[in-house]
Design brief:
Length: 286
């Protein structure tokens, strides 16, 4: 296979996200975007629901539309710094439903993809409606797909498979990985929980999968007292390209250098490739 000649420089912004504090969170996001631009990143990836925090009760009453005031801040920062920006927000749709949303914004400050999380955890279903669409966007950097956090659980990996089938060269995944307050770095339960599904997609399809997670203690909502612990992750077919610190205080920018993969197969040729790799397709339970 030809060696890719282009490399993405991706800034994974492990952001402290405070429950119910959208203005402070957006100010922090703006500083992280500026730092990533100073580090010459092409793409900046920020966490899931960075406005209100994941499953914070204020999202039910204070969520904003997209486009709206919070998305406008992110569009402005992407344009100011000339970067692609992928970030998670909470959206109030015109019909009143609330979604766990992710935006992809181009360097001109335009929203070029909006995605609603599909694989919702039981605990978040009282907060967010289930998404109904998947998209891959053509950009000068390549074909970019977007999903969110648990969409990359093993039991939801069909979402990533579909994005790969749609031609994605990279999947960007705003996330909020949480653990019980007593879990420490030595007990890291997420190493295999995330490395394995990311690696399955990366190696089967020759794509990159990148997730950025928030940090900090969770205040309010069903997960109050738990903590978000960073450990953002960038994986491609060769393995782990970059990984953030596993720590609730690790608010930091992690820069990943990821070679742009070459994806020659399309349509049914992808299925033939998977067969050659020994992939087992779906069957009915016996």
């Amino acid at each position: 296979m030809p060696i890719p000649t282009e490399t993405w420089r991706i800034g994974m912004g492990q952001l402290l996200v405070e429950g119910g504090e959208p203005e402070r969170n957006l100010e922090r996001a703006a500083r992280m975007i500026e730092e990533a631009a100073q580090q010459r990143c092409d793409i900046v990836l920020l966490p899931e629901t960075l406005d209100f925090a994941w499953t914070h009760p204020s999202a039910l009453t204070d969520a904003q539309p997209i486009p709206g005031p919070y998305s406008a801040v992110l569009c402005q920062e992407a344009q100011r710094h000339g970067v692609y920006l992928c970030a998670g927000l909470t959206e109030r749709a015109p019909d009143g439903r609330i979604y766990n949303a992710a935006l992809l914004i181009n360097p001109q400050g335009e929203i070029i993809c909006k995605y609603h999380k599909i694989n919702l955890l039981m605990v978040e279903q009282p907060f967010y409606a289930v998404g109904q669409t998947l998209n891959v966007v053509d950009t000068p950097l390549g074909k970019i797909g977007v999903n969110i956090c648990a969409d990359n659980f093993l039991d939801g990996l069909s979402i990533g498979h579909t994005l790969a089938r749609m031609g994605a060269e990279i999947i960007l995944s705003p996330s909020s990985w949480t653990v019980d307050y007593s879990i420490t770095e030595e007990d890291d339960p997420y190493r295999e929980k995330w490395v394995t599904p990311y690696s399955i997609l990366a190696q089967l399809y020759n794509i990159a999968v990148v997730g950025t997670t928030s940090v900090g203690y969770i205040v309010g909502g069903p997960y109050e007292g738990k903590k978000s612990v960073g450990c953002s992750l960038a994986v491609d077919a060769s393995g782990i390209r970059a990984q953030g610190t596993f720590n609730e205080f690790a608010g930091e920018l992690v820069v990943a250098e990821v070679p742009r993969p070459i994806r020659a197969e399309k349509g049914t040729a992808i299925g033939e490739m998977l067969r050659r790799k020994g992939f087992t397709f779906d069957t009915l339970p016996s």
